[in-house]
Amino acid sequence: MWNDFLLILDATLRISVPFVFAAMGGIFAERSGVIDFGLEGKMLGGAFVAATVAYWTQSAWWGLLGAIGIGIIFSMIHGYASISKRGNQVVSCVAINIFAMGLTVVLANAWFGMGGKTPQLSKEARFMSIELPYAEEFRNIPIFGDIYYEIISGHSILVYIAFLMVPITAWVIFKSSFGLRLRATGENPLAVDTTGISVNKTRYQALLFNGILGGMSGAYLSTAHLAFFVKDMSAGKGYIALAAMIVGKWRPYPAMFACLLFSFLFAIKDKPEVFDLLKGIVPVKLLNSFLDMSPYILTVIFLAGFVGRAVAPKAIGQPFSKEK
C-alpha cells in the first residue's frame, strides 16, 4: 500500500505540471486586469510547436523555445485585441482557443500526414527523467529514501522548473515593485495612470509572462509527458488550470495546491486498487465515468463557493482608456 501511495503521488506531480505552468501564467494576466480564458489555446499551441520544432531540430530545448514563442504570440494577439483595441476579452480568448484547435490539426496534417499527430520524438528531442544525486544510495533508507527516490528524483527538468515558478511568481507579484504596479493595475488602473505609469504597458508585460508560461505548459505535454503531439491533447487542461487559479484566489501557492488536488484525482482514477475499493459503492457501469468526471465535479464544487468566495481583481475585464 505504501508503494502504491508513492506511485500515486509521483503521478500526481507529473500530471500537475501543465496545470501549474498555466495557472501561474493566468495569475500574471488576471492580476493585471486581463481575463485569460485562452490558457487552453496557449497550451495546445505550445504542445504542437514544441513537438514540431523538437522533431525538426532533434532538440527538446529548441522545441521549448518554439513553444514559448507561440505562447507569446498568442498573448500579444490577445493583448492587441483586448488592450490596444479595447475589445471583449472573453471573445478574444475564445477565438484564440478555437484558432489553436483548428490550426494545429491543419498544420499537422499538412506537414506530417498522420491525422493530426506528429512523429514520435527520439530521446534527444525529449526532456528525459533526471536522477538526482544519491537517489540510488538513499533508496534503502525507510520512508525518506522512498520519498526521495520515487517522488523527488526521477522527473524531467520541466517538472522542477514548474514548481520553481511558484515561489518566483509569488515573489514577483507580491514582493517586487513590478508586482505592486501589476496588482494596482488590476485593482485601480485610473489611480495607476495618475502616477505616470502606463497601464497598457504593464498589462502587456504581464501578458508576456503569461505567454511564456502558457507555452511551457504545452511543451511539457508533448516533449516530456508524452513524446509526440496529438489532436486536442490539452483536453481541457487549460480550463482546469484556470479553475485552480480561481480556487486559489489568484495566489500562487493556493493555486498550486489546487492543481495538485485536481492532479491527484486524475492520478488515482487509473489505479485498479481504487476501482476495487469503489465498485462496491458505485455501480461498475458508472464507475469509470464517475472517476473520469471526478476532477471536473470537484472543480464545479469549488467554483460554486464551497471553499469561500473568490473575489477577482476589481478591474478585471475592463479595458482602460484615459479620461479626456
Strands, count: 0
- H/E element order: HHHHHHHHHHHHHH
In what range is the share of β-strand residues?
Answer: under 5%
Gyration radius (Cα, Å) is 20 Å
**Helical run tally:** 14
Summed over residues and divided by their number, the pLDDT gives a mean of 87
Unreliable stretches covering 5 or more consecutive residues: none
Q: What kind of assembly state do the chains in view correspond to?
A: single chain
Measured between the Cα atoms of the first and last residue, the distance is 68 Å
CATH class: Mainly Alpha
What does this structure look like?
With 324 residues, the chain is mainly alpha-helical. The chain has one domain (2-306): ABC transporter involved in vitamin B12 uptake, BtuC. It is 72% helix and 0% strand. Helix 1 packs across helix 6 and helix 7 (157-175) packs across helix 8 (177-187). The longest helix has 30 residues, at 2-31. The chain is globular. The model has no long low-confidence stretch (mean pLDDT 87).
Key features of this structure:
single chain, 324 residues, mainly alpha, ABC transporter involved in vitamin B12 uptake, BtuC, 0% strand, globular
Please write out the topology.
Layout: H1 2-31, H2 39-57, H3 60-84, H4 89-112, H5 135-138, H6 144-152, H7 157-175, H8 177-187, H9 189-194, H10 199-225, H11 237-247, H12 252-268, H13 272-278, H14 284-306
